[in-house]
Specification:
This protein is an alpha/beta fold. It is 39% helix and 14% strand. The chain has helices spanning 5-9, 32-43, 54-74, 87-99, 120-129, 147-151, 176-185, 205-208, 232-235, 261-275, 285-311, 339-348, 361-366, 385-400, and strands at residues 20-21, 81-84, 107-111, 132-136, 158-164, 189-193, 212-215, 226-230, 317-319, 329-334, 351-352, 355-356, 374-378. Strand 5, helix 7 and strand 6 form a beta-alpha-beta unit. The radius of gyration is 21 Å and the shape is globular. The relative contact order is 0.16.
């Protein structure tokens, strides 16, 4: 089998509208198997989890399948997979819980490259206990965040380092294993925001060296919620706020209220959908996920190179996505026009490439773009050459106008 983008596109009902979607970093479109899994869960008996009534058994199975699927996706322990309403919510909960163990003078490191969801929760948690926040700076000329930028800030008082797996604004993928090595040598913990990375590359939490990893299934064809992966033994040392009657077992102690079983069923289907993109159906689901992501990266990078060749040749277009290792995510500004105008112009052509800073405020400011950011072109596995050609033609029309 080869990567058949036309067969892939046929499984996304939303693509029948004829829109060329470059808004994947904000959330992908949803394939039919995921839609059917969500509907199937809601059509079946569902109750509070248990082992007696059919609804209880269905709910228990859905939760277990979800944990196993996300564990395969991230090479994690199913017992360390935590559901959350969003990656932001999970990070806030984690920051509050960890900060209860910090004291005044302890230190936390955040990066300018990150989405604010991996910055503000840590800053606010640090402020509440008098901890010091240190900033790892990326190079605005290259987009790179070298490991040394983090390593130079580490001290014996560092408690946690928060860094992105890939920038949702300019695509930069820092060298996480190298950063993790430095962080752990200093005796600190590493929290990785893999929300953008997990949409484009296989995330192996063991290879990355992350103590905590968050991602969002709606970035890779699934429903809207967040997932945290961590070592169950590490989670067992933490005492989050919880209701007295609720389970104190890991990972349930971190999950508040009844879980949305239909969303979890959809997430399992999304993981299986990705695994089915592997060139061969042989091997375990985890093996097929690795192979599928290799195929996805090859496809997306080829489209990215085509898009770059066309867009960068246009007069008055400036790009900020320059890191050697990056996702197929381009940020553009225009010499004579606001990026918002480009966004609106492209929308009239049924091309969706939004403009803004996309919650990466620190990165946008560091690039000299203030809060306005730029036009973000985010490729997804279902984009094809025709989409890219439409985009380049639309931007060319805009800059000439």
């Amino acid at each position: 089998m080869t990567y058949d983008v036309n067969a892939l596109r046929a499984q996304f009902p939303a693509l029948a509208a004829g829109i060329a979607h470059f808004d994947g970093p904000g959330g992908t479109q949803t394939p039919t198997p995921v839609i059917e899994a969500i509907a199937g869960a809601l059509r079946s008996p569902l109750s509070i989890r248990g082992a007696v009534a059919p609804g209880e058994i269905n709910a228990e199975r859905i939760v277990g399948d979800f944990r196993c699927a996300m564990a395969d996706l991230l090479n994690a322990d199913p017992a360390g997979i935590v559901f959350g309403r969003s990656a932001t919510q999970l990070t806030y909960d984690l920051a509050r819980t960890l900060a209860a163990q910090w004291t005044a003078g302890d230190e936390v490191i955040v990066s300018r490259l990150d989405h604010d969801a991996n910055i503000r929760p840590w800053i606010q948690a640090a402020e509440r206990v008098g901890a010091v926040v240190r900033w790892a700076e990326f190079d605005p000329a290259t987009g790179e965040l070298p490991p040394e930028a983090v390593g130079a800030l580490l001290t014996p008082r560092t408690r946690l380092v928060a860094v992105t797996g890939a920038s949702n604004l300019i695509g930069t993928r820092p060298d996480l294993p190298a950063i993790a090595s430095l962080v752990h040598e200093a005796g600190a913990l590493l929290h990785v925001d893999a929300v953008h990375l997990a949409a484009h590359a296989h995330v192996d939490v063991l290879d990355l060296g992350a103590d905590f990893t968050v991602c969002s299934p709606y970035k890779f064809f699934g429903p809207h919620h967040g997932v945290l992966a961590a070592d169950p033994a590490l989670l067992a040392t933490m005492r989050p706020d919880k209701l007295a009657p609720s389970s104190d077992a890991v990972p349930e102690r971190f999950e508040l209220g009844t879980l949305p079983y239909e969303a979890l069923a959809g997430t399992t289907a999304a993981v299986d959908f990705i695994a089915d993109l592997a060139p061969t159906r042989q091997g375990s689901r985890q093996d097929r996920l690795r192979a599928a992501y290799t195929a996805i990266e090859t496809h997306e990078n080829a489209l990215r190179e085509t898009a770059e060749a066309g867009l960068y040749a246009l007069d008055g277009v400036k790009t900020y996505s320059r890191a050697a290792n990056r996702t197929p995510t381009l940020l553009l500004t225009f010499r004579d026009h606001p990026a918002q105008n480009a966004y609106h112009h492209l929308a009239t052509l049924d091309i969706h490439a939004p403009a803004g800073s996309f919650y990466a405020l620190e990165a946008s400011h560091h690039l000299g773009l203030d809060n306005t950011g730029g036009l973000r072109v985010g490729l997804s596995p279902y984009n094809n050459t025709e989409d890219v050609e439409r985009l380049v033609a639309g931007v060319a029309e805009f800059v000439k106008g």
